[in-house]
């Protein structure tokens, strides 16, 4: 009888702190959460203070010896570094430690590979993996042939590593073509929304801030909710009906994180750019996280990289039910800020009122009497505008309503 139980990876987390007072400890704590999300057990951590990471081995020689001892003492099966390593750093560090070495980028890619469910997600993840590994074919060393416990070895990317660069380039070219078809479909969907005068609000935020929970509570979307990083990858769009029959589409997006791999941003650009084409940005912040302000900075930085500018922003400080004191939260870049709890529903009515006000800003007040043979126009007002008054008179139907400018 054979034991088929998977061996759980035990990893040491390693980081370089380049200046006093930086966020290395917070970043390493987040790396630990990423490792646990990927299914690994954190056996220990190590931080080295350096002016800059060693160009050849990431760590200095003394710390490498200390790390070797720590690996032996904790019976660790691998090392994860908190930065994206250069190929030569990964190769040299692995040879010096005689164990598997990964970096933050590879770990995040692995998590995405484990989460990918739809064909679009799988295309995007494989494309990101191949682009990353294409530049590191000489840097993986002996770990390329290891089965491992899933960390850094999941998804379709690893089976391409033992092929030559030409085959990988061909595969990348094929995936990019498939992704173009997906992008065309998204573009057609956006064009249809514009023709229908439908407003869109993109829900963005740091990973695990509660975006999916918010969408589910507001629209019964049925999106997966888990208290872990990157629980959902595929953007889900649902209609939210406000008062006076006003409607707005809410689109959930993939969560952001510090040091989000650029290969992943490029591959998921069509997904992330849902925010670029939205009318309103709904920024969800985990107010119970001690680093909420740093996470907000990461979100805004990522939005700038995606070209998301000049948008109306509503910031929701979520998970206020977990707070114990009278903490004060403010986002000076937002048009409006609210404290909410997507879990309990606190503050959601106020959020809907804010959406109504923002939608009304893009409309004009119409006072008009329609002849009875043009009564169908009123149905368009009901669908795309906000009908305030409807009165049947001898000469026609008198209407007062807020309607989109282009509908006027």
What does this entry look like structurally?
Mean pLDDT is 84; it is low at 139-149 and 157-161. Helix content is 38%, strand content 21%. Helix 1 runs parallel beside helix 4 (104-115), helix 4 packs antiparallel against helix 5 (119-134) and helix 5 (119-134) packs across helix 6. The strands form three sheets. Strands 6-7-5-8-9-10 form a six-stranded mixed β-sheet, with helices on both faces. Strands 2-1-3-4 form a four-stranded parallel β-sheet, sandwiched between helices. It has a three-stranded antiparallel β-sheet with strand order 11-13-12. With 408 residues, it is α/β, with parallel strands linked by helices.
Order of helices and strands: EHEHEHEHHHEHEEHHEHEEHEHEE
Structural class designation: alpha/beta
Determine the number of helices (DSSP H or I, runs of at least 4 residues).
12
Integer average pLDDT: 84
Largest sheet: 6 strands, mixed
Strand order within the widest beta sheet: 6-7-5-8-9-10
Number of strand elements: 13
Fraction in beta strands: 15-25%
How large is the radius of gyration?
A: 25 Å
* Helix share, percent: 25-40%
Q: Separation of termini?
A: 76 Å
- Backbone shape: elongated
Any low-confidence stretches, pLDDT <50, length ≥5? 139-149, 157-161
């Amino acid at each position: 009888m054979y034991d088929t139980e998977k061996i759980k990876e035990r990893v040491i987390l390693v980081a370089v702190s380049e200046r006093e007072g930086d966020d290395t400890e917070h970043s390493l704590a987040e790396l630990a959460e990423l490792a646990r999300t990927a299914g690994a057990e954190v056996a220990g951590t190590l931080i080295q203070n350096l002016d800059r990471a060693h160009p050849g081995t990431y760590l200095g020689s003394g710390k490498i010896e200390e790390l070797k001892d720590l690996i032996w003492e904790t019976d660790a099966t691998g090392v994860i570094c908190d930065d994206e390593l250069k190929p030569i750093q990964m190769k040299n560090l692995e040879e010096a430690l005689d164990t598997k070495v990964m970096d933050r980028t590879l770990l995040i890619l692995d998590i995405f590979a484990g989460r990918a469910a739809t064909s679009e997600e799988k295309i995007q993840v494989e494309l990101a993996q191949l682009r990353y590994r294409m530049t590191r074919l000489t840097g993986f060393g002996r770990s390329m042939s290891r089965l491992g416990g899933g960390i850094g070895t999941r998804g379709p990317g690893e089976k391409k590593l033992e092929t030559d660069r030409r085959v990988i380039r061909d595969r990348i070219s094929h995936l990019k073509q498939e992704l173009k078809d997906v992008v065309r479909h998204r573009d057609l969907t956006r064009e249809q929304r514009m023709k229908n005068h439908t407003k869109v609000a993109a829900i963005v935020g740091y990973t695990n801030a509660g975006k999916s929970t918010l969408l589910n509570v507001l629209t019964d979307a049925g999106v997966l909710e888990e208290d872990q990083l990157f629980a959902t990858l595929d953007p889900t769009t649902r209609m939210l009906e406000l008062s006076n029959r006003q409607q707005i589409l809410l689109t959930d997006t993939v969560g952001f994180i510090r040091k989000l791999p650029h290969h992943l941003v490029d591959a998921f650009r069509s997904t992330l750019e849902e925010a670029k084409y939205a009318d309103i940005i709904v920024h969800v912040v985990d107010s119970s996280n001690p680093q909420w302000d740093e996470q907000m900075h990461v979100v805004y930085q990522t939005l700038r990289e995606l070209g998301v500018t000049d948008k109306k922003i509503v910031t929701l400080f979520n998970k206020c039910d977990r707070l114990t004191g009278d903490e004060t939260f403010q986002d000076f870049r937002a048009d409006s800020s609210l404290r909410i709890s997507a879990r309990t529903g606190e503050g959601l009515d106020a959020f809907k009122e804010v959406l109504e006000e923002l939608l009304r800003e893009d409309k004009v007040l119409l006072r008009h009497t329609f002849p009875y043979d043009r009564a169908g126009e009123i149905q368009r007002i009901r669908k795309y505008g906000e009908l305030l008054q409807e009165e049947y008179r001898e000469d026609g139907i008198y209407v007062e309503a807020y309607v989109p400018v282009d509908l006027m």
